[in-house]
Amino acid sequence: MNKRLQRNSVSSGTYWEEIAGYARAVRVGDRILVSGTTATGPDDQVVGQGDAGAQARFILDKIEKAVVQLGGTLNDVVRTRIYVRDLADVEAISRVHGERFGPIRPANTLIMAQPVGDEYLVEIEAEAIAGAGDAL
């Protein structure tokens, strides 16, 4: 018997999600996939302009909210990918990542890239497996 997987998604309501046709996060089975996330606030303004650490903190809060909305927790995150505009910001961003994920220790990749929009200093995506945090 082939069990059909259930698919759910959440939106954070940003302008680009509607235009580009994507969800903030999607859950299929026990996997939760969070799209590349920037420090775009609910009013479509950039939070923490000029401060990569503040942007990373806002982004991780936004990622956590999406994961929770889909039935997971931050402890369930098993992979993060960080896209950073300027290598000078790597330590500030890494410290914020460490504050949130130090005991969780997901696999992580950090890539120098140019997130869309000069005001964006960092973009982060995440993958979680619901229930994976129970093994911590």
Radius of gyration: 15 Å
By DSSP, the count of extended strands is 6
CATH topology: 60s Ribosomal Protein L30, Chain: A
The fourth-level CATH homologous superfamily is RutC-like
The domain tally reads 1
Specify the overall morphology.
globular
Distance between the termini: 33 Å
Model regions low in confidence, pLDDT < 50 over at least 5 residues = none
Strand arrangement in the largest pleated sheet: 1-2-3-6-4-5
Main structural class: alpha+beta
Largest sheet properties: 6 strands, mixed
CATH classification class: Alpha Beta
> What's the order of the H and E elements?
EHEEHEHEE
Q: Mind telling me which CATH architecture this is?
A: 2-Layer Sandwich
Number of helices: 3
Helix content: 25-40%
Mean pLDDT: 95
Question: What amount of the residues lies in strands?
Answer: 25-35%
What does this structure look like?
The model has no long low-confidence stretch (mean pLDDT 95). The protein has a 6-stranded mixed beta sheet, covered by helices on one side. The protein has a single domain, classed as 2-Layer Sandwich (60s Ribosomal Protein L30, Chain: A), CATH 3.30.1330.40. It is globular and about 45 Å long. α3 (90-101) links the parallel β4 and β5. With 136 residues, it is an alpha+beta fold. The longest helix has 18 residues, at 52-69. It is built from 3 helices and 6 strands.
